[in-house]
Amino acid sequence: MKTLAHALEEYLTLRRALGFWMDEAQRLLPRFLAFLEQHGSVHITSELALQWATQSPTLSPAEGARRLTLVRGFARFRAAMDPQSQVPAIGLLSARAQRAIPYLYTETEVAQLLEAAAQLPSPTGLRAQSAVTALGLLSVTGMRVGELLALDDADVDLTLGEVTIRHGKFGKARLLPLHATTQKALRAYVAARDRVFPIAPTPSFLVSEQGTRLSQWSLRRTFVQLSRQIGLRGATDRHGPRLHDFRHRFAVEVLLRWYREEVDVERHLPELSTYLGHVKVADTFWYLSATPELLQLALDRLEQGLPLQVWP
């Protein structure tokens, strides 16, 4: 019988071939296998799965339930070849994730973040340039952090002025047009990057000081440092504004502009939804209900007798 490690490799390969996004499973399930090994088990058991999913006191109930769900999917696959493997029951851990209230950066705060990023020290100066470019792109495109960092040089066409997202959520690809000012900034970044690395050490568009693909860990660490520096979070705060909030800000700014310009928002909302890579228009409409100013504009539109459709 195949080992658990071999079975996990096959499971991840199969799920990806079916179009599923498996990055979280690839990151967490090897840790679960290591946990099984530490407990001397060569089979998946519900008891050990539950212990692993809840072992950290810092994990939220929702995160523990999410981890157990990942194990359950792999356990079903494993049970087909190992009758002794157990599949953790649904509902063993029950917790619904609370959707975080977004932090909406002001224009001033975005400018302060970019100014602080531009001052980051490094031997070649590339650290600062990559940080400014990363934060700037998140702000003006609303793309997900993972999508940004997965960009290769070939995905950024500065001749046509567009970015191709090839690794979107649920495997969806899309094109994002770039404003002329964004194209200019990206050309400057490419020139600076290529002066540091004339021979590309990686296909990645965003490159670290060491010549590797810019990592989520590195970008998030830099962002926390900059957030504390400009006062967005306290020196010891463990929580605060997130990189993902740039995405919320982008969506809200588009919707605010449409309402102020008396655009038929409901008619054009699917366009914004497609741009953001949402599966359902309702996911985009959530930004309206989450933002008081947007909600007020929508109510004003309704009071004026203009149509306002509420998406399910």
UniProtKB/TrEMBL annotation:
The keyword Transcription does not apply. PROSITE patterns: TYR_RECOMBINASE. Gene3D superfamilies: Intergrase catalytic core. GO terms for molecular function: DNA binding. Keywords: Chromosome partition, DNA integration, DNA recombination. The keyword Cytoplasm does not apply. It comes from the Bacteria. Residues 99-300 form the Tyr recombinase domain. InterPro entries: DNA_brk_join_enz, Integrase-like_cat_sf, Integrase_catalytic, Tyrosine_recombinase_XerCD. GO terms for biological process: chromosome segregation; DNA integration; DNA recombination. This is Tyrosine-type recombinase/integrase. It comes from Thiorhodococcus mannitoliphagus.
